[in-house]
C-alpha cells in the first residue's frame, strides 16, 4: 500500500468562484520514496502539501482523494486527522522565523512532540531533546535559546529536529532552503538527504528551483498553474522536457549552469573578501 | 535604561496606592462615619489633611477612596479580560459569518460612550460598587475582545501553528501553548492601560453621583463634594485629584515597562 496516494486532487475557493487553484493532480509515494514538487510561485505547490495533511486555510476546499497512511484526509474530521498527523507526516516550512514560536525556548518546542508522541518525561525527555539536536548537528546549549537568539540556518535545523521528533513516515519540506543563503542551503539539503535516508522516510520536497530539487530527489512532478504538466524521473524530464513550461524551466537552469561554467573558478581567498 | 526607570517609578507609585488601599481595610485615622471634627478644618495635627463639610476626616476618606479605585480597576480589568479575551478568541476561530457579526457587535459597543453605557447599567441595577465594576468591565471587554481577535488571528496564521497542527496538537493545546503566550505581552500592556482608564471612569461616575453610594468615599465623589468649597478649603479638591493622577500615571508607566519584561524578543535591546 502506498504511504501517500493522491488522486484527482483539486483545490477550489469555497465560494466556488473562478478556476480551480489546483486542478486534478495525482501522484503516489511509497514508504521511503522521494518526490520533488516543482513549479513557479502561485502554481499550487504549497496548497497541495497543506491539502495532503488536511490543513487548507479556511475559504478553500479540496475535492478528490488523498489517502495518507491509509486514512482518507479529504472530508475527514479534525479528530480523525489528529491521530494520523505526527505519526504519518510532518512539515518543514520555508521561513524558519515563522515556523518556530518566538516566545518558546527551542528545547521546549522540540520536547513538545517527543512528550506527546513518544510519552517521554523528565530525564528521558531531556536526553531525547539532546539527541534530536545532535542529529541535526546543533549543540545542546541551543535548547535553552529563543529562536531570535540563533541564526537562520540553526533555526531551520531546529525546525527539522522538531518535525523529525515524531519519527514521521513522510516528511514534507516546503521550500526549506529558499530563505537561507547558498552555503547554508547546501548544508540543510545534505542534512535532509541524510536524515531521510537514515530513517527511511518518504520525502515530498517542494521547490521552484530545479537545481535544489536535483540534490535530494530523483522523481519530479512539474506543476504549472495548478496542473501537473510533467512527471517522471528527473533525468528524463531534463533531457525531454515535453511541454512549454518544463522546457523553459530546464532552459533557465541550463543558462544558469552555463553562466556558472563561464565564470572563472573562484579561489578560496577571494571568496572571503 | 530609561525604560527601566519608568518601570520602577510605575511600580513604586502603584505600590503606594495599593498599600494605602490595603491599610484602609485594617486601620484608618478615624472611623469612616465619624463626624466629630469641625467643619472644613484646614490641615493640622489632629486631622492631618483637614475635614470636609460634615466634619469627616479627609485622610480617612482618601484611604477608603484608594480602596474603591483599586477594587474598580482590578474588578473591571478582570471582567474585561475574561469576557473580552473569550469573545476575542472565539472570533479568531469563528467562521466568516460569526466573526463578522461579532466584529460588528464589538464596534457598536466601542462606539457607545462608556459613561452612557455605565448609566444604563446603573439605571438597571442601582448605584453600587458592583454596578460600577460591571459597567466599566463591559465597556472594556469590547476593546479587549477586538485586540485579542486581531492578535490571535496573527498567531494562528503562523507556520508554527500549522506545524503543530501537522504533528497532531489539538486546538485547546495550541491556544494554551502558543496563542496565549504570544498575545499575552501586548494584551497585558493594554490591560494595564485599561486599569488606569477604569479608575478614571469610576471617578467620573462617582463625580456624577452614579458611583458607589455613600458612605463609600470614592475619589470622584470627594472631588464633587469639594467643588463648592474649593476656594475656602482647596486641599479637599487637590488631594483626591493628586491621588488619581498618581495611580493613573503609575499604571501607565508600569504598562510601558511591562512591555519589555514580558517579551523575550525585546529583552535583548534593553
From TrEMBL, chain A:
InterPro entries: AAA+_ATPase, ABC_Ni/Peptide_Import, ABC_transporter-like_ATP-bd, ABC_transporter-like_CS, P-loop_NTPase. It comes from the Bacteria. Gene3D superfamilies: P-loop containing nucleotide triphosphate hydrolases. Keywords: ATP-binding, Cell membrane, Membrane, Nucleotide-binding, Transport. CDD domains: ABC_NikE_OppD_transporters. It is found in: Cell membrane. It holds the Pfam family ABC_tran. The keyword Signal does not apply. One of its GO terms (molecular function) is ATP binding. Residues 4-250 form the ABC transporter domain. Its main location: membrane. It is a peripheral membrane protein. Belongs to the ABC transporter superfamily. This is ABC transporter ATP-binding protein.
TrEMBL record, chain B:
It is a multi-pass membrane protein. InterPro entries: BP-dependent_transpt_permease, MetI-like, MetI-like_sf. Its main location: membrane. It is found in: Cell membrane. Gene3D superfamilies: MetI-like. Residues 66-255 form the ABC transmembrane type-1 domain. The keyword Transmembrane helix applies. SUPFAM superfamilies: MetI-like (SSF161098). The keyword Acetylation does not apply. The chain crosses the membrane at residues 7-27, 64-90, 102-123, 129-148, 187-210, 230-255. It comes from the Bacteria. Keywords: Cell membrane, Membrane, Transmembrane, Transmembrane helix, Transport. Belongs to the binding-protein-dependent transport system permease family. This is ABC transporter permease. It comes from Asanoa iriomotensis.
